[in-house]
Amino acid sequence: MTTEHAQQAEHALTPSNYIAHHLSFNTKSIGEGGFWTLHVDTLAMSVILGLVVMGLVWWVARGATAGVPTKRQAFVELVFGFVDDQVKNIFHGDRHSFIAPTALTVFLWVFAMNAMDFLPVDIFAKFMHSLGFDTWRAVPTSDINTTFALALAIWFLMIFFSIKAKGLGGWIHELFCSPFGSKIWVWPANFLFNMIEYVSKPLSHSLRLFGNMYAGEVIFLLLGLWAATGLTGTVAAAILGAGWSIFHILIVALQAFIFMMLTVVYLAMAHESH
Amino acid sequence: MNINFTLIAQAIAFAVLIWFTVKFVWPPLLKAIETRQKDIADGLAAAQEGRSALEVAAKKSEAALNEAKQKASEIIGQAEKRATQIIEEAKSNAKVEGDRIIAGAKAEIDQEVNRAKEGLRAQVSSLAVAGAEKILRKEIDAKAHSDMLSKLAAEL
């Protein structure tokens, strides 16, 4: 189960070292200060996965026929229909121009990024190490930057659609006049409520996904630690690791689905006036 | 768990992916699926149309069959009527003809009877004359009594 020989040479392989090492990003500084840092691993993994997944769907969509579909096309249409149905139930407007494609993107991309959790942590780390990357986080969605980037993008879209649907005046009016009514003495309460809502939406949206994927990764690492303690630990960790992986199939799909549903719900709510 | 520039980079990647999907992925899939849905709907409608057309045709053929049956029975009825009519006609014709033949025969018989009567009368008068001659040969002259005798013959 050992991973980094270089690391081992410097430090003894303690549990905290092992976990800390696995949870370190491959960073690249692009300017002064902590903010101007890039997580190369997160970016590379997410961009590659995005290109691969959406590229595959695009490749199928480009050759899509209205006649008898190939199995490949039928599968893509299945995903398409699934996402489209969900959106149709929530959003009653022209969903095809923006919201449904966005939901498809979110679902497939997040699903692919989550699915990186299935890569065996140590083998993958060893593989990346052999390519010259000392630290490498494989799961982009266990990086708060990714989930928060997605949630914030959705948040801005939400405000954009809200203003687009109701006008700037309507939006500001709603900030002060809902949910309690338009009497002037409830304005502060309304405003406070709306602010809490606007702050909590992206936070819960992003932290839910991040927390699930991060926790999943940590549990795999803990099982890896256990596996290092001897034969009993290896057998137990192997059995539990298999179980956790199987359970994780559900979590990966479910979290991608929840993230998509919240995206659709938030964007649909932005179109409704109270 | 530190927020840094990765967030902005990821947001840009996300925006590009959304744009890509909106522009290139969703429309062709939607078009293919909607076209197929329309094809299927059209096919179902055509099948329904065919079914109803079949129903109409079945009704029509049934109606035609019924009409033909009715016509046939009408024709048979007419033929029967005509046959009885012909028989009646023939019967009455035969009766008339028979009557006529009977009347002709009767007339002929009358004629024959008259002729026989004529013949008999002539023979009776000559017989009477002959008888009277034989009886009266000695006493009367045939010439003197011939007027009286022919009167007598005419009276017979």
Plain-language structure description:
- The complex is a heterodimer of chains A (274) and B (156).
- By secondary structure, chain A is an all-alpha fold.
- Chain A is 73% helix and 2% strand.
- In chain A, strand 1 and strand 2 (37-39) form a beta hairpin.
- The radius of gyration of chain A is 22 Å and the shape is globular.
- By secondary structure, chain B is mainly α.
- Chain B has one domain (27-155).
- In chain B, 93% of the residues lie in helices and 0% in strands.
- The model of chain B has no long low-confidence stretch (mean pLDDT 89).
- The chains are: A mainly alpha (274), B mainly alpha (156).
Helix-strand blueprint:
The complex is a heterodimer of chains A (274) and B (156).
Chain A: H1 5-10, H2 15-22, E1 27-29, E2 37-39, H3 40-62, H4 71-90, H5 99-115, H6 121-130, H7 144-177, H8 187-227, H9 231-271
Antiparallel strand pairs in A: 1-2
Chain B: H1 6-136, H2 142-155
Give, in spatial order, the strands making up the sheet with the most strands of chain A.
1-2
Structural class of chain B: mainly alpha
Oligomeric grouping of the chains: heterodimer
- How many helices of chain B? 2
Q: Name the poorly predicted regions of chain B.
A: none
- Most extensive chain-chain interface: A-B, 48 and 32 residues
Instruction: Please report the total strand number of chain B as a whole number.
Output: 0
Estimated helix fraction of chain A: over 70%
Outline type of chain A? globular
Main structural class of chain A: mainly alpha
Ends apart, CA distance between termini of chain A: 57 Å
